[in-house]
Prior knowledge:
InterPro entries (chain A): MetI-like, MetI-like_sf
Largest sheet of chain B: 5 strands, parallel
Strand order of the largest sheet of chain B: 6-7-8-3-9
Number of strands of chain B: 9
Helix content of chain B: 25-40%
CATH class of the largest domain in chain B: Alpha Beta
Shape of chain B: globular
Order of helices and strands of chain A: HHHHHHHHHHHHHHHHHHHHHHHHH
Structural class of chain A: mainly alpha
Distance between the termini of chain B: 35 Å
Transmembrane segments (chain A): 7-32, 62-83, 104-126, 146-168, 205-225, 245-269, 301-329, 349-372, 392-415, 421-440, 473-494, 523-549
Number of helices of chain B: 6
Domain ABC transmembrane type-1 (chain A): 54-268, 353-544
Number of domains of chain B: 2
Oligomer: heterodimer
Helix content of chain A: over 70%
Subcellular location (chain A): Cell inner membrane; Cell membrane
Number of helices of chain A: 25
Largest sheet of chain A: none
Number of strands of chain A: 0
Structural class of chain B: alpha/beta
CATH architecture of the largest domain in chain A: Orthogonal Bundle
Organism (chain A): Thalassospira profundimaris
CATH topology of the largest domain in chain B: Rossmann fold
Amino acid sequence: MLRFVPIITIAFMIGPVSAGLIGTLLPAFGILPALGGTGPGLDPWVTLFEQPGLWHSVRLSLVNGLIASFVSVAIVVLFCAAWQGTRIFRVMQRILSPILSVPHAAAAFGLAFLIAPSGWIARLVAQFSGWDRPPDLAIIHDPLGLAMIAGLVAKEIPFLFLMTLAALPQADTERTARITATLGYGRIAGWFKATLPRIYPQIRLPVLAVLAYSTSVVDVAIILGPTTPAPLAVRILGWLSDPDLALRFMASSAAILQLIIVLMAMVIWMTGEKIIGVIGRHWAENGQRFKRDQGARHGSAVLAILATGAIILGLVILLIWSVAGFWGFPEILPRSFSLRLWQREYDAIGSSLGTTLLIAVPTVIIAVALVLGCLENEVRQAHKPGRGVMWLIYLPLLVPQISFMFGLQVFFTLIGLERTLISVVLAHLVFVLPYVFLSLSDPFRALDPRYGQTALCLGASPSGVFWKVRLPLLTRAILTAMAVGLAVTVGQYLPTLLIGAGRFATVTTEAVALASGGDRRMIGIYGLLQMVLPFAGFACALLIPAILFRHRRGMSAHNRG
Amino acid sequence: MPSGIKTGLELRDVRIGLDGRELVAVDLVIEPGEIVTLMGPSGSGKSSLLGHICGTLPDQFKVAGQVILDGQSLDGKAPQDRHVGILFQDDLLFPHLSVGGNLAFALSTNVRGKANRRARVEEALRSADLDGFADRDPATLSGGQRARIALMRVLLSEPCALLLDEPFSKLDSDLRGQIRSFVFNLCRKNGLPTLMVTHDPEDGIAAGGRVINLA
């Protein structure tokens, strides 16, 4: 039984992606019998290309995705190069882990409340400049999409940073840094010349996932992105939600176009990798040492602190708005505080939290069980899967959600599962499984295999070893993986909206739905609610092992996970 | 337990290879209560040999020959059915269990009843001069105490043979002699055929048995 778990797990990820892509591809060429499309044709594409501002939308998606990814990667590697092994580096490590669990939409709302013309920064400036009304500037929803890029960068930095952190020990970076320093290299130059080439292959898949995400993002684009026209993915969602069902065909073509854009972005990115690789090799050998890099080092710290600070401050402002009474411009704080809205929304809050958990609990349990099965199978078969498997695990994160979610909806309708909890859980699993796997595989594989061998030689059965030795030793890692999985399902917007067809109102779908209304107090409430469950999850992952093993000092060393 | 007749541990022309290269080849019989020392540089396949005997060697290794314990072949048996105990250079006490929990983990389910099992654990602790340590956290013990618990844990699983994988190399030099004689005495007293691999010549001298040098 155990040996089939890896296949089942991969099927749960690849199956929906494939079914969804087919279900999008067919209507894109006019085939969708349910809506009267029977013969193959190019009509959907003709209609699509007639849409005003289509190429503008395409350019926004492609260019902004590339810029956002490049800036996030640049800040992360620069910061690691400049500060690895220092105190600020360790502090950053602690701060960024919880930030990773903040759903994209909540972070984007926080940022919007911070930088909008009537936002908190403008209020701060107003104290000195004497503004009595918000400046007349399009700072969010700006036509170039700069606010959206900023939101993406701030939210992708924690993910890329933690992925880089996981890669660091494998490249013996501490000693490499000592060697480059004794050879007279500045910190940053030494790291870029000697460490980055060894780290990059390890973080390449996460980087590509960030690129695919940034190029096709929907929720952040709705909250911060340009509107006239919007990036392509947002317009596709609009067409998919249009009461005119005939638009579904064109929307499918657009979803395929979105996939092509993501592939183009990846080709451009990989070409860039090649060019930088060639130039970098020459640069590494030219002996320049860049000993005076204080300026660059501090610059990288400022950027990283700015990005994290923006998210944290944004969340605080969400909190303030959720309890704000009258709060006119340019006041720094509201004149009064009130829980009136929380009371009014009490029932709605309860039901959206309930719905979120209704999806999250089965999803996380299934995901953790499957991933544990895969890893345990790995131990029993005594061989590790190759690098190709990593591509399979990342596949759901490399294909844009909007390109296969509509097709998946069509597929679920076909097999009679539309608008059911099962189909929503299956759709969430596609994205939860990769993250749970990434979170759990390192600590599981790092467990000293001699514990298992010792237990076997003491007469324990293989399943006894799993339940009585490996599982307890990995308590904290497993709870952390569950918290990661919880954070991922809570943050899902498109899968919940499209697969659930509006039947499942989670904290995230409710929050994004509020974006157009502009009721800041309500946005504050639902933005906060998005964070409640992930934070509670991570708090449990810290507290439960600490209580369970309070008399076992050796467990803290074994369960860094 | 196998046939009941103690004839020792027999390695009949055992050869272990990896990627077409032979790592180790031995042919020997270890009598009950005898301690045989296997010396060799690191990478000479000593630990692979022990892994093969207790059944935890990954299958990419090529293995030939027979391993026989008390007259019965071990080849193809699952590790948990072999009754072969092993001690590593680290004590590998399970950090999530108490000292008593670690020892009870090793006790067979044939020892029934909570009180009965507890008594066996206490008895083992007493014979290691660690009375009253059952509820302690293993992480709070000294290296010497942990080493003794690890040995008691193996012995409670009632092995028919014992393997020692550089068991003393991580101990302080003043402790090493004391733990060595503790382990060796119990091996002899329990009549266990014992195979020790090490690269410390003093281990072999202290064991007082045959010393085999691997090339």
